[in-house]
Design goal:
The complex is a heterodimer. Chain A has helices at about 5-10, 10-20, 25-45, 50-65, 75-100, 120-140, 145-155, 160-165, 170-190, 190-195. Chain A is mostly helical. Chain A has 2 domains: about 1-115, Rna Polymerase Sigma Factor, Chain: A; about 125-190, Winged helix-like DNA-binding domain superfamily/Winged helix DNA-binding domain (Arc Repressor Mutant, subunit A). Chain B has 2 domains: about 35-85; about 95-200, no CATH class. The chains are: A mainly alpha, B mainly alpha.
C-alpha cells in the first residue's frame, strides 16, 4: 500500500493496518504523528529532555511489539498516552529511588534542559526561557497525580472523558484533580501574573 | 481534543494560558533512526532468545534418553551380579559330582600344607567315594560346596588342570586329615593358620 494513502488513514486505521498486514509503513506513520505530542507530554511530566526521549522511544517500541493488544473499541491516542504515562510514572519512581540512594542530594541530572526558540530574539528568548523554566519548575512541584491531569488537559488539550479513560478513573475524579492541580499551580505562579 | 472551557476553567484562566503558552517540545531529529535501530536490536535479541529457548528442548530429549538407558543398564547389571551366585551355586552342585572339577586346585601343594585346606574337598570327595562317613556335619558340607565352587571358578579362569593322581593324593591326604581331626591332635587354630599359609 503506498505511503500517500497511509497518510490519509486515521490513527485507528493505521494501527489496524499494522496489526493485519504487519506493514511497518503504517507504524512509521503513527510514529511520525505521535512522537512530538508524546515528547511534549512526557517532558512536561518528567522535566528531563533526554529521559523523555527514552520514555517516548520505549512507548513506541511497546506499541510495535504489543500491537495486537490494542482493541479497536478504544481510541489509539488514549491507548498510546496510557502507555507513555505509565512508563513516565515508572521512570519517575525509578529516579526518585535513585535520588534516595544517591549520596549527592542535588542531582544535577534532574535540572530541566532549556529548549531554545530559534525564531525569537535574544531578549525574548531569555524572557520566554525564564518563564518556561518557572512554569516547568512549578509543574514539577505539584503532585504527580495532579500534574498528569493538568498536562493532559491544559497542554495536550484532551477532554475530561479521554483523560478519565486514559487513567482509568471517573470524570469526576479527573475534574477534581485538575482543579486542585491548577489551584496549586496558581499559588506557585503568583509572581508571574504580577509581572 | 476539545477546546471547550468548563465553568471551573474560568477560575484558572491565567494558569491555563500560562500552560498553553509553554513552548512545544519536539522529539530529537534522529528519533526515528534510533527507534528503528532499537527495534531491530530487540528483534535480534528475541531471535537469539528463541534459539536458546528451543535448544534445551532438543538437548533435553537425548539427555533424558541417555540417562534412562544408563539407569536401566545399571539396574540390569546389578541384578545380574546378584543373581550370579545362587545360579552358580545351583549349577555347581551337579557338576561337583565329577571328580576332576572338584579336586582341581594346586597340584604342587604338600600334604602338610594342604591337609586342612583340602578338608572340605575331601568331604565332597568322600561323599562320592564313601558316603557312609556321616560324621561330617552339614556346615562342612556347605563349606565344601563353596570351595568346590571356587575350585570350578578357578578352573574356568585358567587354573592348572588336575590329574587323576592328584585327586587320589588329595583324597588320601584328606583321609589323613580327617583322621587327625578325629584324633583331636590338630587344633582348630592350627588348621586356620595352615589355611592362611596355604593361601599365601
Amino acid at each position: 500500500m503506498p505511503d500517500k494513502a497511509l497518510a490519509d488513514f486515521t490513527d485507528e486505521e493505521l494501527i489496524l493496518e499494522f496489526q493485519r498486514t504487519d506493514n511497518v509503513a503504517a507504524f512509521e506513520q503513527l510514529v511520525g504523528r505521535y512522537k512530538n505530542p508524546l515528547m511534549n507530554f512526557v517532558f512536561r511530566f518528567l522535566g528531563d529532555y533526554e529521559l523523555s526521549g527514552d520514555v517516548v522511544q520505549e512507548t513506541m517500541i511497546k506499541v510495535y511489539r504489543n500491537k495486537d493488544s490494542y482493541k479497536s473499541i478504544a481510541k489509539f491516542s488514549t491507548w498510546i498516552y496510557t502507555i507513555a504515562g505509565n512508563l513516565a510514572k515508572t521512570e519517575l519512581q525509578r529516579r526518585k529511588r535513585r535520588k534516595l540512594v544517591s549520596l549527592s542530594p542535588s542531582g544535577d541530572d534532574s535540572d530541566p534542559i532549556e529548549i531554545p526558540d530559534k525564531d525569537a530574539g535574544p531578549e525574548e528568548l531569555a524572557d520566554a526561557g525564564i518563564k518556561n523554566k518557572i512554569i516547568q519548575d512549578a509543574l514539577l512541584k505539584i503532585s504527580e497525580a495532579y500534574r498528569e491531569v493538568v498536562i493532559l488537559r491544559d497542554i495536550q488539550e484532551f477532554s475530561y472523558e479521554e483523560i478519565a479513560e486514559m487513567l482509568d478513573i471517573t470524570v469526576g475524579t479527573v475534574k477534581s484533580r485538575i482543579n486542585r492541580g491548577r489551584a496549586q499551580l496558581q499559588e506557585l505562579l503568583k509572581d508571574i501574573y504580577k509581572v | 481534543m476539545s477546546n471547550l472551557y468548563h465553568e471551573e476553567d474560568e477560575k484558572f484562566k491565567d494558569v491555563i494560558n500560562a500552560l498553553k503558552g509553554l513552548k512545544r517540545v519536539d522529539a530529537p531529529e534522529d528519533f526515528e533512526l534510533n527507534l528503528f535501530r532499537e527495534i531491530n536490536a530487540h528483534k535480534h535479541q528475541r531471535k537469539s532468545k528463541l534459539l536458546f529457548g528451543v535448544l534445551p528442548r532438543f538437548t533435553l530429549i537425548p539427555a533424558s534418553v541417555v540417562f534412562t538407558i544408563l539407569v536401566v543398564s545399571v539396574v540390569i547389571i546389578f541384578n545380574q551380579t546378584s543373581e550370579v551366585v545362587p545360579l552358580k551355586q545351583e549349577s555347581t552342585l551337579p557338576e561337583a559330582k565329577t571328580p576332576p572339577s572338584i579336586v582341581e586346585p594346586r597340584p604342587e601343594i604338600t600334604d602338610k600344607q594342604t591337609a586342612p585346606v583340602q578338608e572340605p574337598k575331601t568331604v565332597r570327595r568322600e561323599e562320592y567315594t564313601a558316603p557312609q562317613e556321616k560324621e561330617i556335619t552339614s556346615t562342612t558340607r556347605a563349606k565344601s560346596e563353596t570351595n568346590t565352587t571356587t575350585a570350578i571358578e578357578a578352573g574356568e579362569s585358567g587354573a592348572p588342570a588336575v590329574t587323576s593322581d592328584n585327586v587320589v593324593s588329595t583324597a588320601k591326604r584328606s583321609d589323613s586329615t580327617v583322621a587327625i581331626e578325629k584324633a583331636g591332635k590338630v587344633s582348630r587354630k592350627d588348621t586356620l593358620k595352615k589355611k592362611k599359609e596355604d593361601k599365601k
